[in-house]
Amino acid sequence: MRGLIGTSLSEKHIGRRRVVPVIYLQGSHYEVGYDVGRNFASIIQSFLKTYQGLKDFEREYNTPSGRAAYDNTLLNMKQRYPYYVKEIQGVADGAKVPFYQLFLLHMDDIIGTINDKNSNRIDDGGCSDIAFKSPENVVLGHTEDAPMETLNHFYIMSAHVIPTPEDRELGAVEERFASLCYAGQLPGYTMGFNEYGLVFTINTLSPLVLKPGNTPRMFITRALLTARTPAEAEKILLDEGLGIGNGFSTNVIWTFENGERDLMNIEVAPDLTANKSILNIQKYTNDTLMHCNAYLRERVQEVTGDIIESSVTRMKAIRRHAPPRSRHDIERVLSDTTYKDFPVFQTRLDAPIQTIAAGIFDMSAKTWSIYIDKPDSSEPVALLPMTFSQLNQNH
């Protein structure tokens, strides 16, 4: 007994756990949210207690401009995506945590910067992506980089969402998808796939000027999980009538009924002159897809500071490698630690942004591999089959 006590782990010092919790769910939007919250209550409560970003968001929420932005955004989301608001409410009820805290997480930098227009603001986020397309295969690799408190505070939900009649009338559709989720947050803003042939990963991007009240990126990427065709995905991203309030890019693989595949990156930014998002779409056939956390094509005024410096440094490291031609090449790039301050795979204990996991989507093998340690020197902790069961129902 003494030996066990001597090696016990506290929540604060448990280190990098090689665990990928996966939950399989079926039900309405509220029900799947509730069951996620109930089953992962301790992880969600722990994250809300320790995440410094939430404390910053709450400080802004308690100002007149912050509360106005919160109320306006919530009102707009209840009109545009009421069933996703219900999903968040389900998580809150299941985990026994306040709804407003979870909604603040979804507003993210929109609320965090409401009283601060400083271009050198400290934006969270990371993620590095590299992919190639060959006649035989498409392989997409992604590091999931997030604030250090997110380490050990995530899970994967594999869901069959069956909307209630009320939600169907409001625009909800039946969904089948799998996505990594940060604790307490909607699926989609990470990496995952749906059963209509869509695979995607996300890179946080940081426009300097945001649009409080507009659609937070986490709602748009949640909706992206419903897309059955590239045209549907583009419509969701464009978000006409409102438009995104902040920024991101998504790295996408589409598989079609005839077996062909498309590989693309889409940069998404707020349109400061219209009620829609700005989209910049690039397809890849022979070139390597590479993307981190800065706009590469769309001309957007961005913040300065670590998120941009880190992105530039990681892109420099990625470009040092020969163009990938195999899955092993992807593993090697994702594991790169050439530049110590901003490595592609970040595990330094004092780093504010950590690589909490890495994912590789291998379209030939039809697998999604999730790593906790560097992919070039470890085995995946989880290996999920990718099934496109609804592919022939896209039209």
TrEMBL record:
Q: Name one Pfam family in it.
A: AAT
Question: What is this protein's record name?
Answer: Tan
Ranges for the Peptidase C45 hydrolase domain? 135-376
Source domain of life is: Eukaryota
| InterPro entries listed in its UniProt record | C45_proenzyme-like (IPR047794), Peptidase_C45 (IPR047801), Peptidase_C45_hydrolase (IPR005079)
Supply the NCBIfam families for this chain: C45_proenzyme
Designated gene of the protein: tan
